[in-house]
Design goal:
By secondary structure, this protein is α+β, with helices and mostly antiparallel strands. The chain is 39% helix and 25% strand. The strands form two sheets. The protein has a three-stranded antiparallel sheet with strand order 5-1-6. It has a three-stranded antiparallel sheet with strand order 2-3-4. Helix 3 packs across helix 4. The longest helix has 16 residues.
Amino acid sequence: MILPGPPGRRNVRSRFSSSIMQWRIIDDNALQLRFWDGEFVVYNALSGDIHVLDSRAGHLLQALQQAPSDVLSLVQRFASEWQCEPSDDLLHEIEMTVSDMHALALVERA
């Protein structure tokens, strides 16, 4: 899958080849998600930690709960859902969100 970019710019895949790595949640039974007041509250049963995620991060986590995915696939999916272009900015936002969730031990490399 190659994301089209503006004329004269390299496509997203060539600039971010590391974005094809697969990600998944840490354990199918470890995370409990609840949505309140525009935010997701996530309980991690493995660590006992509770995290509050914004709406976009929560939806990304739900997507990874459904099936492992790479960042480029998440960009395509959520560009459509969020009605925006699959841009470098969106790619960067999703990469950073997945990286943050990895640091919180919510997701891991598949």
